[in-house]
Amino acid sequence: MTTADLPTGEAAPTLDADELRAWLRLAHAKGLRPLALRTLLGAFGGPLEVLSESFASLAEIADARAAEAVLAPPEEIEGVPFDDYIEAAFVWAAEPGNHILTLADATYPQALLTMPDPPPLLYAKGRLELLQARAVAIVGSRHASPQGLEDARRFARVLSDAGLAVVSGLALGIDASAHRGALEGATGTVSVIGTGADLVYPAAHHTLAHEIAREGAMLSEWPLGTPARSANFPQRNRLIAGMSGGVLIVEAAMRSGSLITARLANEMGRDVFAIPGSIHAPLSQGCHRLLKQGAKLVETPEDVLEEFGFSPATARAASTAARRARPRPVSASWASARADEADSAIDGDASRVLDALGHAPATLEILAMRTDLDGAALQGALLQLELSGHVAALAGGRYTAVERS
């Protein structure tokens, strides 16, 4: 492990090489559920002790399936032979800002320990102290409206200024806006990702991910090299809920993955907040469903802060303390920097499409008529504009320009 370049001077956890190898073997053992491993660790004390026990002893404490998983020879991890993976994990953890945290580490997120089945091992990047901060999750649609994007960013910035870490999942849409708003605030943000900690998904968020790794924290329970798989993201959502004292849903359709996060948060005893919207807007339907089920309606960031016990005076005091404690405050607006970077890349067909959008949403057919672009060129230009944050896709196959600040 490494203590180099820790922003707060907090010591990173140190583990004996054999002990860390044992943790990695058990954490990634196929068929060994986190709850069963936690039970075994509680009974025998540590990963080396668990691995030294007999089948009968392990089966007596957990069950035969868990015992078989513990004693089975280690298999490949993400297609990499076990010994090679261990070597790669040590190399990754030796890089500045990278950490492998186990249930035995004081820096392991305490909020996750209230879950019945916390991951036995986490890969973290960035500011470890953020993993212990009071936190609120902000999640929502990947195809958010411009208003939803602005709401997510504004709520995140105010909540971060008040002293709350903002947790989200690095997805397109609401997640990205929440991360950016929190980076502009005093406290910062934690990104819980559904891939290995050495990968970025979606690729469009490569720069944002690096910004979070420097100014905030990133967290993954998946082995290094794990690509984006649809089955991983509901489990990722479970950690987002577990890290937070409450979850705010900004926009969500009826089948949104954000509703999974809200359900998991409710099951864990966390608060669920939702922003209402128009009864005609598909992205409001998920929020309205949550409100009918008992979620707390919020119209301003102060509504959330009140539920967290912040009065206006304590929110101001928390903001001042957070800004003083933050080791490297953001010196300029991340969103503005991203906009400048994106603006320099917009030209040709993309510029024509952006000019053609105007102030009202438009369909592909309307844009094709206004720009005289064929289908492939139009789709390519729209993709470039979406990835750069200039255009958002709306329900019904419409597109709208995103107001730049």
From TrEMBL:
Residues 339-397 form the DprA winged helix domain. Coiled coil: none annotated. It comes from the Bacteria. InterPro entries: DprA, DprA_WH, DrpA_SLOG, WH-like_DNA-bd_sf. Pfam families: DNA_processg_A, WHD_DprA. Residues 100-308 form the Smf/DprA SLOG domain. Belongs to the DprA/Smf family. NCBIfam families: dprA. This is DNA-processing protein DprA. It comes from Caballeronia jiangsuensis.
